Amino acid sequence: MRKYLFCLIITAFAFGISGCSDDQYAIEKQYWRLQKQAENIYKNPHGSPPKELEKVIQLLNNFIGKYPKDKLSLNADFDIAGLYITKEEYEKARAQLQIIINKYNKSRTVSAEALFLLGTTYQKENSWGQALIQYRKIIQDYPDTLKGLEIPLYIARYYKTAYQPDKMHTAYKEAISHYKGLIEKYPNTALAYAAHSAMAKCYIAIKDWEKTIETFNAMLDTYKGKAKMDGILLNMAFIYSKELKNNIKAKEALAQLKNDYPKSRLLKAADKILKEIEKK
After folding, report:
1. Residue-level pLDDT at 10
2. Could you tell me if residue 261 is left (phi over 0), alpha (psi between -120 and 50 degrees) or otherwise beta?
């Protein structure tokens, strides 16, 4: 949870929330002090008394009320939700997250993050059906956000950890279909690149190696020169060698990696794969 909240500090700049220029350092110092108080609860959620939670929540609300347009007010709003989740007060957490969704409804990223935490509260209560409703809202309403890209994979991986292979396989197939739709709707964009990468992960998860290679080749054709492809070429070499038993294609991928990226940090790994191939 702390790592998540730290990320919000960084991403707040991207949400169009203006900072207060009068004495920003003093505002940041106030927020830092609030975080230190919140950390006591995060570190010992079951041992901290209810009054301590109420006090910190009130202080955070006061901060938000005093600096409603400051970039840190978003963090404070999420801090409140995070504290309630940590204390397992899920109804209050959901109420706070709904406040965030309403307040920042113009920010697709914030709305998607808040919906994900809403789903998390249900998941922590072992109410997967309710959690899934929130996660599907993200896929439907915010597919172009980072969380929107992650959620289809997240759902499939949940079924894997829950030992439900049929549902896992179905979820991966649905994810693949979703990513294909994004690639078609937003061709030659950073979003399409991310969707291609996510789709490759799906094929790897279900061990469809031919489709994985097909996806990687599509990425090479579409994004070469726009993004580094050395990692993709290394993965292709590994799959050709280990899974498809096609050492000729594996060597071709490794040769392309060395030729196109002579200073790549992956060259040692490439040499290791090549040595293993040559031993056969």
Report:
1. 37
2. beta
Nearest to 60 by CA among 91, 38, 42, 44: 38
Residue 224, φ and ψ in degrees, nearest 5: -60, 130
Least confident of 19-33, 52-66, 151-165, 253-267: 19-33
User: How far is residue 259's CA from residue 222's CA, in Å, rounded to a whole number?
Assistant: 19
Name 79's Cβ contacts closer than 8 Å, sequence gap at least 6.
5, 34, 35, 38, 60
Q: What count of other Cβ atoms lies within 10 Å of the Cβ of residue 181?
A: 12
Contact, 205 vs 156, CB < 8 A? yes
In this structure, are residues 111 and 105 in contact, taking their beta carbons and an 8 Å threshold? yes
The pair of structure tokens assigned to 107 is: 């920010």
Model confidence pTM above 0.90:
no
DSSP-based three-state secondary structure for 142: coil
Query: Three-class SS of residue 206?
Result: coil
31 contacts 56 by C-beta, under 8 angstroms = no
Could you give the 3-state DSSP secondary structure of residue 119? helix
CB atoms within 10 A of CB 224: 12
